[in-house]
Write a structure and sequence with these properties.
The protein is of the alpha/beta class. It has ten helices and eight strands. The protein has an eight-stranded mixed beta sheet, sandwiched between helices.
Length: 313
């Protein structure tokens, strides 16, 4: 339980909130995209970034829910800069349209927070005929990041301010299939296991972050890429699991993080000056952490990168 967690080297802990880890930070002049910001930790991340002066682009599939989040933020923070744009990460066409529309808007881009996700859903294929969890949680964000990378490089160069890419992964990556990534069975319905498939998509988030960080370092650009485990949070990610959702509603307040705590590590990596220059790392509870051995396999990371590039072309 969070009550028993102590502060780590960063001075923050499991129970720190997003407001606490960004206290006193001025984000004025920065622009951030937050995917999956229609509820849960995505909405809280957007609220706190806006509170710190960041211009926030809420990227969501459900525009009505996204607009509701924007209205709630503006009601609390009248001077906040918040826009809502449509993005369906399960569709490559939607991702491409979003990126094109954003670039044509003329906005700069300092921070990209890949937060959206689906969890442990029944077997389904995306609009591009790829298993839905892998498509939404990994490939959609992978494509989005690559399409926006030049804009981030341009912004970092022009503003002389470090760009930050934040990938919300999960310790559920430990639940992935034994192979880590089942390159030859991504769409195999017969052997599909919804929790293993979720773990695989989260494993992919971590592996692709390592490979991206390597590319950014080789390019010599001032952009970092890090992934994180937000922790077990009482949120609507459990909506596809009726029994689990009931338990979450009943005991979540006692055993799970609330959204204010769940969004903290994302906001810490996105804004806190302690993380300046830190790239290719995995965070948990607002401190550096170590993912599984397989999630640190650089050969697997390179193979996944090439595999993903082929799929999104």
């Amino acid at each position: 339980m969070w009550l028993f967690k102590k502060n780590g080297p960063s001075g923050f802990s499991y129970s720190s909130t997003a407001e606490e880890v960004t206290h006193g930070i001025d984000g004025s002049g920065l622009t951030a995209i937050v995917t999956g910001a229609s509820s849960g930790i995505g909405a809280e991340t957007s609220r706190v970034l806006a509170l710190r002066g960041v211009h926030v682009i809420i990227a969501v599939r459900n525009m009505t829910a996204g607009k509701d989040v924007k209205e709630a933020i503006l009601k609390e923070i009248p001077a906040a800069k918040v826009d809502v744009m449509e993005l369906d990460l399960s569709s490559f066409d939607s991702v491409k349209k979003f990126a094109a529309d954003f670039i044509s808007s003329g906005h700069s881009l300092n921070i990209l927070i890949n937060n959206a996700g689906v969890m442990a859903i029944p077997f389904m294929l995306s609009k591009d005929n790829i298993e839905l969890q892998f498509a939404t949680n990994h490939l959609g964000h992978f494509l989005l990041t690559n399409l926006l990378l030049e804009k981030m490089k341009e912004t970092a160069c022009e503003t002389k301010r470090e760009g930050r890419i934040v990938n919300v992964a999960s310790d559920a990556h430990y639940l992935t299939y034994p192979e880590g990534i089942r390159f030859d069975k991504i769409n195999d319905q017969e052997s599909y296991r919804k929790f293993s498939a979720y773990g695989q998509s989260k494993m992919a988030n971590i592996l692709s972050t390592y490979e991206l960080a390597k590319h950014l370092k080789e390019d010599g650009v001032e952009i970092t890429a890090n992934s994180l485990n937000p922790g077990a949070i009482s949120s609507n990610l459990f909506r596809h699991m009726t029994i689990v959702n009931g338990l979450v509603s009943t005991i979540g307040k006692l055993l799970l993080k609330n959204v204010q705590q769940g969004a903290s590590t994302t906001c810490y990596i996105a804004l806190n000056p302690q993380v300046k220059g830190v790239s290719g790392e995995y965070f948990q509870d607002n401190n550096l952490a170590t993912p599984s051995k397989k999630a640190r396999d650089m050969d697997l990371a390179k193979k996944l990168w090439d595999f993903s590039m082929d799929l999104v072309k």
